[in-house]
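## tool: complex_structure
## caller: assistant
## args:
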Amino acid sequence: MGLLLVAGPGLPAFGDPESAAAGHVSAHFVENAYLDSHTPNIVTVIIADYRGFDTLGEVVVVFVAGLACLFLLRRSNPQQTGYLLRRTDSIIVDLATRVMTPIIQVFALYVIFHGHYSPGGGFQGGALFAGSILLQRVSQGHENSQHTFSRHLDTPFAIAGVLIFAGLGVVTLLAGGNYLQYDQLPLGLRLDMLRNLGILVAEVGVAFAVVGTLVSIFDDLSCTGRGIPRD
Amino acid sequence: MTEFLQPLVIDRWAYVFTILLLSVGLYGLVMKKNLIKKLIGMNIFQTAVILFFIQQAYKHGGTVPIYDTTVGARPELYVNPLPHGLMLTAIVVSVATTGVALALLVLIHRRYETLNEDELLQKLRES
Amino acid sequence: MTWSQLPILTPVVLLVGATAVLLTGRIRPSLAHRLATATCASCFAIAIALAVQVHHHGPTHYALGGWSPPIGIELVADTLSVYFLLVITGIALLVMVGAAPAVERDTPGRSVEFFAISLIFLLGLSGIVLTGDLFNLYVFLEISSLSAYTLVSSGDERAGVAAFRYLIVGTIGASFYLLGLGFLYSVTGTLNMTDMAMRLDPAAIPVRLAAVMITVGLGLKMAIFPMHRWLPDAYTHASSTATALIAPIMTKVSAYVLIRILFFVFGTSMVSIDLPIAQAIMWLSVAGVLVGSTMAIAQTDLKRMLAYSSVAQVAYIGVGIGLATPLALAGALLHVISHATMKCCLFLVVGAVELQTGNRKLSSLSGIGRKMPWTFAAFTAAAVAMIGLPPTGGFFSKWYLVLGGMATGEWWVVIFVLGASLLTATYFFRLLESIYTRQSSELAPIKEAPLAVALPIVILGLAVILFGLFNSRILDLFLRDAMPPGLVISG
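## result:
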């Protein structure tokens, strides 16, 4: 730790707008993001367009984590799977979650789609949406909440998300550009609107993958398979 | 002494917190015996690294990096957006790793009934 | 699509392959393995095509999203990357071909997911060697690491604990890497490798500290002594297929990252003259060679013995990196391909033995050499290569290391490297003797392994010898061009 303290003074001063990190690549992002893609939220443009490949990698990380939990924990024998969560006894919790869930979901969708204009995007919105599903699981009990979102949907959602994002790149490849080069999309729109759309599709893909994986991990962690009787 | 301290503590005071967090994380990771506490130590360490990146991004007088037509596109008016984007990725990676680690811990607990490192080592020696 | 799109194809094919495996696995599980093998085969073909292209036209740069660096992320396929990519995809294909019976036995009912995760593991590794962006490298590093942790846990009862320890150590390593990257970014403002090499100031303290942190982080992942403790458990307790997949390539790719960053980004003079990083790596690796080889002698479980042997062999690569001369680096790189083939062959043999006999204690291997002749012929070849006898590849890589050591006057290194060969000889000769000469006490008849399992083993055994015979061709084809700027192999 002493080493780090010694290095401290060598780093740019805190809050310095002239520091090396703030210039160069980053300055280019700030100056051009709106011009390039008609999207005000510069961070979204960075992660979904300029550095979209990183975000695709991140989706793969999420996907692998979900796969890993599935691989490690899920029992293949349905007879062995026990649901740990029962329906709550409290009327307050029951009612509150019934009211809250659609509100959360609408907000989640807003966060995803409005990520162009305000902080947000696929990950954040996806996590929120997953949260609403988990809320259902916890308050209604595992068995009842299967109607809302069956656990057989987990992995397909995740796979769909990965394929949407990766497929977007393949489409751009087929259209003659480089991978994830949105301005090559054969849709006849203005260049910056094409990128706007590309970012949107990427974020939607991310959201699907996040929802699928988070719910899948929750389901894997909470079904113990110890033979706890179904509710 | 002051020439050394001043640039560190005054101009770059935020980084001192990062160093503290790093130390806390490492301490927990190495010293604690419970596997979950080790995991949390690791998580704190990762969070400190993420915090480090975010701290770099701050600019005095800068605002949220969302383009505002009334303000214009000058970089010094906005907080540096690149580290924020990078750290979105890093946070997700950290969460994913923690998730897998927890799944492994569930497996370990199922098999060995304990999550304490010493007990675990003993059980491993016996079997 | 033109040839210029080649670099991106490997990751994409692997990703689509992984999802396809999962989808078909739900409908017809038996197809999953074939699909995985087909994916690996196509990736190997892509790697060869890319290698040919780089050989004729020089390094290929690929700007993702159409954004040129340093604004966007680029993939860079130069000779070094392509060399590693060939090793990765080749090993993957050979392991995948014969993997079905073992995987089904080790992870019943979950083999579909096993194959999917393996493909994502390969995705991560190929991304690491192809990317030209330091943060992108971190993302792919974590992709491959997460998959590796999961694959490791697919073994026996103790695999979970081994995987957890691997996870903790690996994640700390990645975090150190990220922290070092943070320092570098704060003083250069870029993440692209070539751009950063131009912009960084070797004398600045944050840059030097970053070099140390990144080295420590990667050293954890590479199992450089004394950070090697996770490796023996992880390799021993993982299922044999997982080990055969991970052991030959995971640590090597970490070595690739070390080479790429230390020599290409920081520059040779900074890491060997200004800062004693290279020397530190060298001495720690020497210790690793000795410790690994010694511990291997004491083992009674074949897999654990091979795992400790891996610690020693990867340390040889570390010695080459640490010596930081052209010959030594060439030796290290040659050792990458030799050790990958040797270890893969050996671990696949372990898998075959498990398949045919049900266990892997050294004592039960008596006389097995005559019952599984093809398998153990290849095993013998690999063992000979591990010890470092001519004409195998193992000999030549150590030869170059020794030459490099003599050229820089590091005589102790030379002595230790040669001494370790003697140690290696000890445990392998003892093993070979038991395999071929003693009478087996097994009553049940042991047959040769099935074709799909034995064929890759034999191919690898041959490869080990071929790499040795043709080592100068490898040198000319790949290694001369793979050298970092400033290091030139003469003669």
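## assistant note: Chain C touches chain A through 55 residues (CB under 8 Å). Strands of chain C lie at 60-63, 74-77. Handing back to user.
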